[in-house]
Amino acid sequence: MKISACIITLNEEKNLPRCLNSIVSLVDEIVIIDSGSSDRTAEIAASFNVRFLSHPWEGYVKQKNFALDQASHPWILSIDADEELSSELLENLKALKNKSDHPAGYEISRIVEYQGVKIFHGDWFPDRLVRLFQKEKARFAGGEVHERLELNGPIQPLSGYLWHYTYQNREDRLQRIHHYADLWAKTAIQKGKRATILTAALHAGWRLFRGFILKQGFRNGALGWEIAWGNATEVYLKYELLRKNNNPGHH
Fold first, then answer.
1. 138 forms bridges with which residues in the sheet?
2. Residues 202, 207, 210, 212, CA torsion sign
3. Which CATH number applies to 3-164?
4. CATH 3.90.550.10 occupies which residues in the chain?
5. Which of 40, 105, 151, 178 is the most buried (most CB within 10 A)?
6. Cβ neighbours of residue 133 under 8 Å, at least 6 residues apart?
7. pLDDT band at 210 (very low <50, low <70, confident <90, very high)
8. Do the Cβ atoms of 57 and 33 come closer than 8 Å?
9. What single string gives the DSSP state of each residue in 110-165?
C-alpha cells in the first residue's frame, strides 16, 4: 500500500510542522498545494522533503481535486494542515499497509481541540470522515464550503482519532463563523434557495437544542455552551444572509 498525503495550504506555518511530523513515518509521498502563502509555509515544507506546488486558489473542491491529480500513489491520505494523527491512529494506519485486502476507503473520527480541551460531546462529535482512500475511486464535490468526498465503493471505520486544532481562539472562531456563513449563503443563492424571517430563528433554535442538550454539549460546561451558541449563531447568520438576498429591499 503506497500512500500519498495531500494537503492544501495558505499561511500554515503554525500548524504545518505538527501535521507533517505526525504523517512523515507513514506516507510514501507528501504533496502540498499552496495558494500563495506569505509566511514560512514553503520553508517548513522544504525541510520535510515534500512536493510543494503553488496553485492559485479555486475553492476547496477544485483545490483538493488538483491535489489528488498531482499524487503519484494509488492511496491518498487527505489531511488538513491544522490536523494531526493520534498515535493510535498512526499505528492502525501503519498496520493497514501490510494488508492485501482493502475497501475503497477508511473512515476516521476527527476530534476538535478548542481552547486546550479535546471536545467529545456536542455538535462537533463524532465527526466521521473518509480520509484514507483509493485515488481512482474518489473525487471531491460540493459548494463553496464543506466540500465532500464522493467515493465509489465500501468504507470501513478505523479506530484512533484525528486531532483537529481548528481555532486559535474565540476571535478566530467568530471570524470563521461569519466567513463560512457568507460562503454557505452564496452557494444557497446560486441554488435558488429561499428563506423567510422565521427560517433563521427556527434553524438556529434547533441547532442550539440539538448541540447542547441532545448531543450532550452541556457535559463540557461553559465551553460546551460557547460551542453550541457559536454553531447556532452560524446557522442564524446563514439564513439571515439568504433572506436578505431574497428580499434586497428589506433589512
1. 151
2. negative
3. 3.90.550.10
4. 3-164
5. 105
6. 75, 76, 78, 104, 105, 106, 149, 151
7. very high
8. no
9. EEEEETTEE--SSTTS-EEEEEEEEGGGEEEE-SSSS-EEEE-S-EEEEEEEEEE-
